[in-house]
């Protein structure tokens, strides 16, 4: 339904106040819960009014999805935050339906996020692309080449932080076309997409040789002192790269491809 209409505007906030009054009258609603309802719903009102919505009956599921995307996903919110705000929307629109202000609850069309311990929502596609574009602009310095490879290993190949820092020169085939990766199921051989292969070869040719100090050090990713890049060092590097790209809340977990998308092309198990 077209949200923009010439009909007289109905104050969206009035229904929010009625909902809050109903929750108070029902008793048993904690003050902190009421504050959460008020915060989320008046933020929703401002979001809708800025887009020309005048009546709650005009609001559909895509509009609520955009609200959650902008106020949770793009701000780096957690799965828990997503589900908490969705619960508020469902409760509010259920109240509107019971009061006859709307015909049906559009929030029921939105999906809960499956929580995992410490999980955060993946980067939206536009922010992921922004970071990959930034990777191409990094300088051809040893650390610039390393950082470009890090972004490609995590963001395009889908490696976890621990898998990336565990890579050694022995895990790379002579042509730089495949990597041996340690997974929970054992060793796997991964064929590298072209951007990952190109950044790997460039780093091996002109980046890593200028960082390494101990010729016996076989670690692929090195820090500025020529030592093994730790998992914590990789996290700090990715967060710093995100800030330089104008994205303040980037982590390896958020940078990895979202579940359900192909991460790479696995081959047979290495012997």
Can you give a write-up of this model?
By secondary structure, this protein is mainly alpha-helical. It folds into 2 domains: 12-109, DNA polymerase, domain 1 (Orthogonal Bundle); 125-266, hpI Integrase, Chain A, CATH 1.10.443. The chain has 10 helices and 3 strands; from the N terminus they run αααααααββαααβ. It has helices at 12-26, 31-49, 61-71, 79-98, 125-136, 142-155, 161-165, 194-211, 231-244, 252-255; strands at 178-183, 186-191, 265-266. A 3-stranded antiparallel beta sheet has the order 1-2-3, with no helix packed on it. Helix 1 packs antiparallel against helix 2, helix 2 crosses helix 4 (79-98) and helix 6 runs antiparallel to helix 8. It is elongated and about 75 Å long. The model is unreliable at 1-9 and 258-271 (pLDDT under 50).
Task: Name the CATH class of the largest domain.
Answer: Mainly Alpha
Tally of DSSP helical segments: 10
Order of helices and strands: HHHHHHHEEHHHE
Measured on Cα atoms, how large is the radius of gyration?
A: 24 Å
**How is the CATH topology of the largest domain named?**
hpI Integrase, Chain A
Largest sheet: 3 strands, antiparallel
Tally of strands: 3
Percent of residues in helices: 40-55%
Which spans of ≥5 residues are poorly predicted at pLDDT below 50? Answer: 1-9, 258-271
Question: What is the CATH H-level superfamily of the largest domain?
Answer: Intergrase catalytic core
Assign the structural class, choosing from mainly alpha, mainly beta, alpha/beta, alpha+beta, or little secondary structure: mainly alpha
CA-to-CA gap between the ends? 58 Å
Number of domains: 2
Strand content bin = 5-15%
